[in-house]
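G., before I forget:
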Amino acid sequence: MSNRLDPSLIARLPPFSKLDRDQITTLLEQATSQLYPAETTIFSEGQEAERFFLLLDGHIRVVRLTPGGEQVIALHIPPGQLFGIAQAIGRKTYPAMAVAAEDCIALSWPVNLWQRFCDDFPGFATETYRTVGERMGELHESILAMATKHVEERVACALMRLIQQGGRKDGNAVEISFPVTRQNISDMTGTTLHTVSRLLSAWARDGVVESRRRHIRILDPHRLVLLSGA
Amino acid sequence: MSNRLDPSLIARLPPFSKLDRDQITTLLEQATSQLYPAETTIFSEGQEAERFFLLLDGHIRVVRLTPGGEQVIALHIPPGQLFGIAQAIGRKTYPAMAVAAEDCIALSWPVNLWQRFCDDFPGFATETYRTVGERMGELHESILAMATKHVEERVACALMRLIQQGGRKDGNAVEISFPVTRQNISDMTGTTLHTVSRLLSAWARDGVVESRRRHIRILDPHRLVLLSGA
DNA sequence: CGTGAAGTTTGATATTCCGCAATGAACCCG
DNA sequence: CGGGTTCATTGCGGAATATCAAACTTCACG
């Protein structure tokens, strides 16, 4: 809960990019900064939405649970984005669970500041609604993929989404910059970790990917696109 | 494009329920009213969002198309709700296609009035964001169902969603009040019309449903809930 | 009416993918 | 450095569901 946050941390991020130095300072003074170790649950589905968050570093998994205990990963939040913004969609409770995919640092503010931010900070409201729209687009894409594509294509799509949000380029290859298990990928695509494992093995044989435990590199992104059946 | 619209048409609908008579009148004077015959495409995915809509009567299917020409029904819009509200999610183009599931009547306004509505009409912005939130919730549910449930359960869920939005009660039974084909249901659930047909036949044998061409009645809603694996 | 189009049913066959089971490799921590 | 835990691999059999094919109903419309 440091109150020595550097304005440069957030000055360039879209929701705040139009603000002047003073506004940024005000904003930071009211913020709480916290480290969430990997696999921490930041908030749960249905829980009262008491704060909203800005992810500074790391990646968040947005997860929904079934009554039967299975889990589905609906989205990933990349650094620099707001999350836990139930207020933006007229809710008083969080619509899903947020889990730190790796060690994460996030700022957060109490909900009662939400309206203030929207009113006082030009571009804040607009940008958050754009974010909501983008996430809705991603959900749409997921549904489309689940409804029309075969497992192999869906898994390829999932990998592509992952590298789009957390891809470290390395020559021709791309590595997913945060830890991902086979189980995680199966939770994104509605399959089993077995099937994912088999697919990755096959792709590794063909030189499309390479994978260590919890880490995946795509050696031939182009071939992956083909496999995704775009 | 009548300008003799009765204020009572919309005065009670959530987005406008807090407005006084004069405001409603102003609002209606600026609106265009139009009939969209069944199966009409009201707007297409990617198209410039020039107007936003309020559905007065009928049901809308929100559809996405794959490059391969398959279609997926992501949502249904019931009467009384806004749709085509790309502005609310920071977009300049419609994110999906809207098709009239039956004869529909809708009001629409040019986008340049959107900001005015948000500023001038108390509750309008809030209500639209609530709507966006609800639709996001539905997309989440779809994803959860597609990822974790078997076809039979998914189809049962789809029927339940349909009766929730367009269900005419009739004693113990419920009838879906607008036309639905096997193909439509398969487009909602990511199956084939063949499988849906088989399931409905089986359920009809068990007395759970009854169906004519393009119309489905649920005779035993409780059994359907069980089949949905809630 | 009669004809065609759209929607539905059903069977037979094909295939994908899951579930189960067991082994093996990588990592953490004391 | 050893022991346990988490994560990954692989084979096999079987169930769920798609695909193919054909006949049948219902309806709209001339």
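Residues 185 and 198 of chain A are 12 Å apart (CA to CA). Chain A has a mean pLDDT of 95.

More on Monday.
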